[in-house]
Automatic annotation (TrEMBL):
Glyoxal oxidase N-terminal domain segment(s): 76-448
Spans annotated as Disordered: 288-312
Compositional bias (Polar residues): 289-312
Protein name as annotated: Glyoxal oxidase N-terminus-domain-containing protein
Galactose oxidase-like Early set domain span: 453-552
Length: 569
C-alpha cells in the first residue's frame, strides 16, 4: 500500500483547521549550490557524528593533511566553521563502512591492507581489513578532545573485509556484510561471503551467506536495510533477498529486471523509502548501475558504456513481493548515484557519472585513471508519494561544475542541507587531470535554507519507543499549518554510493490549538527505528526546521532488549 498525500495528511495532521496567518505568501527561496571550505583528505566516507561535526575517512595514500609527522586519513569537519582537523587512526580505513550504534558510539569497520609504500611514514600495523574503530559520543561542538579508538591486537573483525557494508539492527548492534580479502582488479574475485556482528554474536564466528555467494563477482558494498519487523532486506548485483537474523534464514526475492547490476563495481544505489504510521509498510527504491554482463572482463568494458537510468521499487509485503519490482526511469543514467532522504520525505538523487563504472584503472579506455566519464552535474528529486510516471522532478534544482565520481561522499546535515565532498578516481592525489582529487566542499541548500524556518525547542534528549512527547514549535506566520511532517532520521554513513543505516520514520503529530506545541508519538518499537541516535526535523508547508538530536531507546550498549510494543502481525 502506498500512502497518498491525502491519506498521510489524515493520519498525521489531525484535526487542525487550515490556517493562514497573513494570506501573504513569503518567497520559499531557491535551491543553490554553495562552496565553503576545503577538506584535507578525500571525503570518501562521511558520517554526521554530532549536531556540529562530520567525520570523514579515507585512505593511507597521499592525502595532504598531516598528523603526528605522517599523513592523516581521518578528519573531523566542523559545520559551524567549515574547517576540518586531523584525527589519528591506526589502521587503513579505505573503503570501510560503519554506523552509529545504540549507545551513540560510531563504529567503523573493515578497510584496506597497506598499499605499495606511499611517500609517507605510516604505522607498521596499518592493515585495516579487520579494523574496528570506535568514536565515542563527542559532546564538544568543535570536536576538541574527541578521538578515534583502535586496538587492532584485541579489537578486530573475524574476517578480512575490504568493501563491506554494515548497518545498525534492531538490538542496536552493527551487522557487517560481505567484502573482499585482497586487492582485486575490478570484480570481487576473492570474496568474504559472510555476515558478522559488532559486538560479536555466534561466539565471534562468521555466518556464511548463500546469497552473497550467488551474487559474486559484483557484490561489494551490498545495500542492506533493517525492515520494521527486524529482518534485513539486501540487494546485491541483480538479486535481492530478506535475511532473518534470528532464524538465520535467507528468503530470495525477485531479481532486478533487465539484467541491471547495482553494487560495486557497477554501483547503483538504493534506499528504504520513508516509513509512515500506522503500518510502517517498507518499500525499497533501487536506481542506476549498469546492465553490462558480469562475464565481460573489465578490459573489454568502456568508460563510455551508458549507465542505467532504471529505477525499480518494491513493497515488501507478501502482496508487494508477489507483484515484484515496478519500473521507472530517471531523467538520465547514473553510475555511482547517491540517494539522500530529505526530511520532507522526498529522495534526492545526486552525483555520479552518465557512463562507465566505479573504481579506476580497470576499463579499456579510462579517462585519466577514471573508469567513469560524463559526470552528472544536476541533481533530481524523487517524490515517492506521487503516482508512477510523475515522481521525478528537477524544477528549480541547480547545476554544479564539480564532478563527484568515485570516492566522493555526502550527507544530509543537522541544518537540513546536504554536505558534498570528495571524488578521487585515482590511486593517490592527482592534480590537473580531467578528474582530479577533489578537496572542495560544496553544500546543496534547499529553498528553506534562505528563509525563516520553524524552530523546535524543549525536545527531551532521550525518547522511549511508543511514547507521546510534547515539545515547543515556533512556526513562521506565513506557513500553512495544515501540512506538518515530523521526521525521525538517521542520516547514514556514506561510502561508495550507499548511505548505510540511513532511515526516515514519520511520526504521528498533533499541533496544539495555539500552534505553539506539537504532541508527537515516537515509533512503536526498536525494529521500526533501530535504537540509537536520531534527528527530529519538522517540515511545515514544505519548510523544514533544523534537526534536533535525540537518543531513541534506552541508550544502552548493544545488544539492547526489545523495547516498545510489537506491531500487529
Ligand atoms: C562559509 O561558512 C562560514 C562558517 O559557517 C560562514 O561564516 C560563511 O559565511 C560561509 N560562506 C559562504 C559563502 O556561505
Ligand atoms: C614518491 O617518491 C618518488 C621518489 O622520490 C617519486 O618519484 C614519486 O613521484 C613520489 N610519488 C608521489 C605520489 O608523490
Ligand atoms: C543476473 O546476473 C547473472 C550474472 O551475474 C545472470 O546470469 C542472470 O541472468 C541475471 N538475472 C537477471 C534476471 O537478469
Ligand atoms: C579497447 O578499445 C580499442 C578501441 O576502441 C579496441 O580496438 C580494442 O579492441 C579494445 N580492447 C579490448 C580488450 O576490448
Ligand atoms: C542497457 O542499458 C542501456 C542504458 O540504459 C540501454 O541503452 C540499453 O538498451 C540496455 N540494454 C539492454 C539489453 O537492456
Ligand atoms: C596544475 O596547473 C596549474 C595551473 O596551470 C599549475 O599552476 C600547477 O602547478 C599544476 N600542478 C601540477 C601538480 O602540475
Ligand atoms: C558503546 O558500546 C560499544 C560496544 O560495546 C563500546 O565499545 C563503547 O565504548 C560504548 N560507548 C559508550 C559511550 O558507552
Amino acid at each position: 500500500m502506498i500512502f497518498t498525500k491525502q491519506l498521510l495528511s489524515s493520519i498525521l495532521f489531525l484535526a487542525i483547521a487550515s490556517f493562514t496567518a497573513t494570506g501573504v505568501s513569503t518567497p520559499k527561496g531557491e535551491w543553490s549550490f554553495v562552496r565553503n571550505g576545503t577538506t584535507g583528505i578525500t571525503a570518501s566516507q562521511v558520517i554526521v557524528v554530532s549536531p556540529t561535526l562530520i567525520l570523514m575517512l579515507d585512505r593511507v595514500l597521499g592525502d595532504p593533511l598531516q598528523i603526528n609527522g605522517h599523513q592523516a586519513w581521518v578528519e573531523l569537519w566542523n559545520l559551524e566553521t567549515n574547517t576540518g582537523f586531523a584525527v589519528n587512526a591506526i589502521t587503513n580505513t579505505f573503503c570501510a563502512s560503519g554506523a552509529m550504534i545504540s549507545n551513540g558510539t560510531m563504529v567503523s569497520v573493515g578497510g584496506q591492507m597497506v598499499e605499495s609504500p606511499p611517500n609517507v611514514t605510516v604505522p607498521p600495523d596499518a592493515d585495516g581489513r579487520m579494523g574496528i574503530r570506535i568514536f565515542e559520543p563527542c559532546e564538544d561542538p568543535s570536536g576538541a578532545g574527541c578521538t578515534l579508538f583502535e586496538d587492532p591486537e584485541t579489537l578486530h573483525l573475524a574476517a578480512y573485509r575490504w568493501y563491506p557494508s554494515s548497518l545498525r539492527i534492531f538490538d542496536g548492534s552493527l551487522m557487517i556484510l560481505g567484502g573482499t580479502h585482497e586487492q582485486t582488479p575490478f570484480y570481487n574475485t576473492d570474496p568474504e561471503n559472510t555476515f558478522e556482528f559488532f559486538p560479536p554474536k555466534d561466539n565471534g564466528q562468521t555466518r556464511f551467506s548463500p546469497f552473497l555467494a550467488r551474487t559474486v563477482p559484483t557484490n561489494l558494498f551490498p545495500r542492506a536495510f533493517a525492515l520494521p519487523d527486524g529482518k534485513i532486506f539486501i540487494v546485491a548485483n541483480n538479486q535481492s533477498m530478506i535475511y532473518d537474523i534470528e532464524a538465520q534464514t535467507e528468503t530470495p526475492l525477485p531479481s532486478l529486471p533487465n539484467g541491471v547490476h547495482v553494487t560495486n563495481p557497477k554501483d547503483g544505489t538504493a534506499t528504504l523509502l520513508p516509513l509512515s504510521p500506522p503500518d510502517y509498510i517498507p518499500e525499497i527504491l533501487v536506481c542506476g548501475g549498469s546492465n553490462t554482463s558480469d562475464s565481460t572482463p573489465s578490459e573489454e568494458l568502456s568508460s563510455q558504456d551508458p549507465a542505467s537510468d532504471q529505477c525499480t521499487r518494491m513493497t515488501l509485503t507478501p502482496e508487494g513481493i508477489e507483484k515484484g519490482w515496478s519500473l521507472e526511469r530517471m531523467p538520465e543514467g547514473r553510475m555511482m548515484p547517491e540517494m539522500v532522504l530529505m526530511p520532507n520525505g522526498q529522495v534526492l538523487i545526486i552525483n555520479g557519472a552518465g557512463t562507465g563504472y566505479a573504481a579506476y584503472q580497470s576499463v579499456n579506455d579510462t579517462i585519466g585513471n577514471s573508469n567513469a566519464d560524463h559526470p552528472v552535474f544536476t541533481p533530481v528529486l524523487y517524490d515517492p508519494d506521487l503516482p508512477l510516471g510523475s515522481r521525478f522532478t528537477r524544477e528549480g534544482l541547480p547545476t554544479t561544475d564539480i564532478p563527484r565520481l568515485y570516492h566522493s561522499g555526502l550527507t544530509l546535515t543537522p541544518s537540513g542541507n546536504v554536505f558534498i565532498a570528495g571524488s578521487n578516481p585515482n590511486p593517490g592525489v592527482v592534480e590537473n587531470a580531467t578528474f582530479n582529487t577533489e578537496f572542495q566542499v560544496e553544500f546543496l541548500n534547499p529553498p528553506f535554507m534562505s528563509r525563516e524556518r520553524p524552530s523546535l525547542s524543549g525536545i527531551p534528549a532521550q525518547l522511549d519507543f511508543n511514547q507521546k512527547v510534547t515539545f515547543s514549535i515556533d512556526i513562521p506566520r506565513d506557513l500553512h499549518t495544515n501540512e506538518i511532517k515530523v521526521a525521525l532520521m538517521d542520516m547514514g554513513y556514506s561510502s561508495h554510493a550507499f548511505h548505510s543505516s540511513s532511515r526516515l520514520v514519520f511520526m504521528e503529530a498533533e499541533l496544539s490549538d495555539d500552534q505553539g506545541s506539537l504532541i508527537v508519538t515516537t515509533p512503536p518499537n526498536n525494529r521500526v527505528y533501530p535504537p540509537g541516535p536520531a534527528y527530529i526535523f519538522v517540515t511545515v508547508d514544505d519548510v523544514t526546521s533544523t534537526g534536533v538530536r535525540v537518543m531513541v531507546g534506552n541508550g544502552a550498549a548493544p545488544p539492547v532488549e526489545e523495547q516498545g510494543v510489537r506491531l500487529a502481525a
